């Protein structure tokens, strides 16, 4: 546990705020259960990622300035999304007059599971979750933030989310055929390359179904929104939860 | 045609698209497994990347050193600023030798320069001798993959083609039988060709020699039977020292096909007595790419094709969907440098998943360059629609109030609008996916009610 109760700012991505408030609630409650002092600065909008990935990083100065001003005074900023954290760290444009704050922010913004394992230094969570859980690694978390070892690399295997999940009593971890293939969401890619995006999503779902996944989880709700959208349309028998929801339920 | 349209077309044949994905995944998986048998794999990648950085930083002097040593070895050295000049140089050599039929081993550079149609127009018969390349040549198609040129074709299609062109038995799809027929057919071509053309995998500045890697031995077969060998080499293929090859040859075969080593790594240094050896050094846009700070390290590419095999988009859309000589992720960062307008959709044919960068043996930051090309392309070729809606979003996102109002409206709209409107065909999200159920309140509203 960290000393002197550092102040943690909860960064809730815009689509989570609008479509998945329960993921925001779970993230907040989970961090509180782990002894953190968390607050959610009001007035959050969007980090600007959809624009930047579409080739309009230059139009995200406003969103970026707003983000820095909102979060600069926290000791840590934590978000239930690898993708948005990666954007803030790597793709937000330099903001004149806030250089120092921006540089500091890039070192104190964390994805939720890496915050728990790397900052809170928690390796094992005590709790119970008796389900077969399939984990979808979002690429931006996986290869961007290195939350787990990429299958392409010759490295000692590690997976921060798995470390937190697999100690939960009753949880069965699903081994997939393709452990870290992209689901095909990709932001605006989901719309501009609709055919491939859907094919990729279907292939991921087939891998989970072939290995009897009961609950499909992950660190990024955007991937899950895409996968759930396809599964619902095709009436596939899968449940979907963000990893924050599982951890929060498990350690109740 | 744009990449999304071509990809949608490719995916119409679902069974074949699935087969294509699984075939290339098999190659990637083989590469993963063999790379993990080399404890120093990541170190090799670092070394290769650093050597290539050094090459790019000193390209001019290495090229001059290579030229001097090659001339000392008795090689004729030619310089071509673009594809046209390259093609004319090759044709001049052929005409000097009154040659009207050549054999050619695999060279993506000559594809890039469109050498075959140019020579054919000038009365020269060109026979590609790599089996995969011969197959696509007989079909009048370009290669769909830089290492596996005919990977998009199934056995049955090749059997039908060979039955028609090489008079093999109708319906015989046995790969050994078909390969044997191709071998007999190619052997005649090898025996008749006075000039053999090859590509170059590595040119060694220190010695003036070059290395050609093939699995079929077809480069050697062609070169040893011909009087004249013409080797075509992109200027970025230089390595400083012969000992650097130890790193690159280990990486190349494992990354390309998961083999421990390419079957034939042939070194060419001097012409055999009474024969001629030419090398054509080609720029064709490479120095322009070298001048682009964000994109120059794309020139480190050793053409192993690993980024294609790993790319979830390439595997599901096929090489032709890219409409460029080099397809896949590396092609999508090389091609916009040659013609940004023509290739404007390619950097968007990616989810930026990063697998290409992690698989790359010379550590090119491919997915980051895809992101950077997007920033360049939208400056000049942004489609109005995309630009406009994004601009509105930028306005919303810098203002919390505007965001709150539009977000609330969106959630309400999703609740009250009929499905027929939400899932209208112009709404690409809803064609094959449901939207999430709209919650009654946002997280921010929940927080204000419950915590502040």
From TrEMBL, chain A:
It comes from the Bacteria. Pfam families: CCG. Residues 9-88, 133-228 form the Cysteine-rich domain. PANTHER family: LACTATE UTILIZATION PROTEIN A, UNCHARACTERIZED PROTEIN YKGE. This is (Fe-S)-binding protein. It comes from Algoriphagus oliviformis.
TrEMBL record, chain B:
Residues 291-312 form the 4Fe-4S ferredoxin-type domain. InterPro entries: 4Fe4S_Fe-S-bd, 4Fe4S_Fe_S_CS, FTHF_cligase-like_sf, Helical_ferredxn, LUD_dom, LutB/LldF, NagB/RpiA_transferase-like. Keywords: 4Fe-4S, Electron transport, Iron, Iron-sulfur, Metal-binding, Repeat, Transport. It comes from the Bacteria. This is Lactate utilization protein.
């Amino acid at each position: 546990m960290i000393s002197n109760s550092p102040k943690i700012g909860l960064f809730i991505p815009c689509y989570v705020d609008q479509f998945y408030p329960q993921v925001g609630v779970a993230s907040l409650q989970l961090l509180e259960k782990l002894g953190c002092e968390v607050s959610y600065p009001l007035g959050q909008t969007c980090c600007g990622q959809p624009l930047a990935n579409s080739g309009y990083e230059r139009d995200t100065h406003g969103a970026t300035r707003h983000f820095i001003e909102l979060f600069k005074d926290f000791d840590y900023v934590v978000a239930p999304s690898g993708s948005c954290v990666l954007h803030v760290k790597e793709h937000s444009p330099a903001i004149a007059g806030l250089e120092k704050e921006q540089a500091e922010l890039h070192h104190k913004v964390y994805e939720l599971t890496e915050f728990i394992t790397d900052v809170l230094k928690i390796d094992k969570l005590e709790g119970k979750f008796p389900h077969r859980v399939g984990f979808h690694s979002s690429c931006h978390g996986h290869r961007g933030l290195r939350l787990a070892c990429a299958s392409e690399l010759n490295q000692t295997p590690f997976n921060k989310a798995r470390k937190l999940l697999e100690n939960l009593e009753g949880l069965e971890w699903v081994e997939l055929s393709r452990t870290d293939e992209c689901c095909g969401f990709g932001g605006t890619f989901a719309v501009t390359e609709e055919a491939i995006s859907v094919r990729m999503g279907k292939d991921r779902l087939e891998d989970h179904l072939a290995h009897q996944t009961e609950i499909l989880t992950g660190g990024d709700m955007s991937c899950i929104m895409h996968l759930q959208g396809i599964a619902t349309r095709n009436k596939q028998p899968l449940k979907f939860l963000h990893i924050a929801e599982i951890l929060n339920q498990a350690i109740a | 045609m744009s990449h999304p349209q071509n990809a949608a077309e490719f995916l119409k044949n679902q069974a074949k698209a699935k087969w294509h994905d699984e075939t290339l995944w098999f190659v990637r998986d083989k590469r993963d497994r063999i790379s993990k048998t080399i404890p120093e794999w990541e170190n090799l990648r670092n070394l290769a990347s650093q050597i290539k950085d050094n090459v790019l930083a000193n390209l001019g002097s290495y090229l001059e050193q290579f030229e001097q040593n090659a001339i000392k070895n008795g090689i004729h050295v030619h310089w071509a600023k673009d594809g046209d000049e390259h093609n004319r140089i090759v044709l001049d050599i052929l005409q000097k030798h009154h040659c009207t039929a050549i054999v050619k081993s695999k060279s993506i550079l000559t594809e890039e320069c469109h050498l075959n149609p140019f020579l054919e127009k000038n009365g020269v018969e060109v026979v590609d001798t790599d089996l995969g390349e011969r197959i696509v040549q007989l079909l009048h198609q370009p290669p769909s993959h830089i290492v596996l040129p005919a990977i998009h074709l199934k056995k049955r299609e090749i059997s039908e083609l060979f039955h028609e062109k090489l008079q093999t038995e109708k319906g015989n799809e046995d790969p050994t039988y078909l390969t044997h027929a191709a071998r007999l057919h190619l052997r005649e071509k090898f025996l008749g060709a006075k000039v053999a053309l090859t590509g170059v995998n590595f040119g060694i500045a220190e010695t003036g020699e070059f290395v050609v890697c093939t699995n079929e031995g077809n480069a050697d077969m062609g070169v040893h039977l011909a009087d004249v060998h013409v080797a075509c080499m992109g200027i970025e293929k230089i390595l400083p020292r012969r000992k650097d090859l130890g790193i690159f040859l280990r990486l190349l075969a494992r990354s390309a096909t998961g083999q421990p080593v390419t079957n034939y790594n042939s070194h060419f240094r001097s012409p055999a007595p009474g024969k001629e050896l030419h090398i054509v050094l080609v720029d064709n846009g490479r120095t322009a790419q070298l001048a682009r700070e964000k994109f120059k390290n794309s020139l480190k590419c050793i053409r192993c094709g690993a980024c294609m095999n790993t790319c979830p988009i390439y595997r599901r859309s096929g090489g032709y969907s890219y409409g460029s000589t080099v397809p896949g992720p590396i092609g999508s960062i090389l091609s916009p440098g040659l013609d940004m307008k023509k290739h404007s959709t390619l950097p968007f044919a990616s989810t930026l998943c990063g697998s290409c960068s992690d698989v790359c043996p010379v550590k090119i930051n491919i997915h980051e360059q895809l992101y950077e090309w997007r920033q360049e392309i939208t400056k000049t070729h942004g489609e109005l629609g995309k630009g406009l809606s994004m601009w509105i979003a930028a306005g919303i996102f810098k203002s919390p109030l505007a965001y709150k109002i539009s977000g609330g409206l969106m959630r309400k709209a999703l609740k009250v609008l009929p499905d027929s409107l939400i899932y209208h065909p112009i709404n690409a999200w809803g064609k094959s996916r449901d939207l999430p159920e709209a919650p009654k309140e946002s997280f921010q509203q929940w927080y204000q009610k419950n915590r502040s």
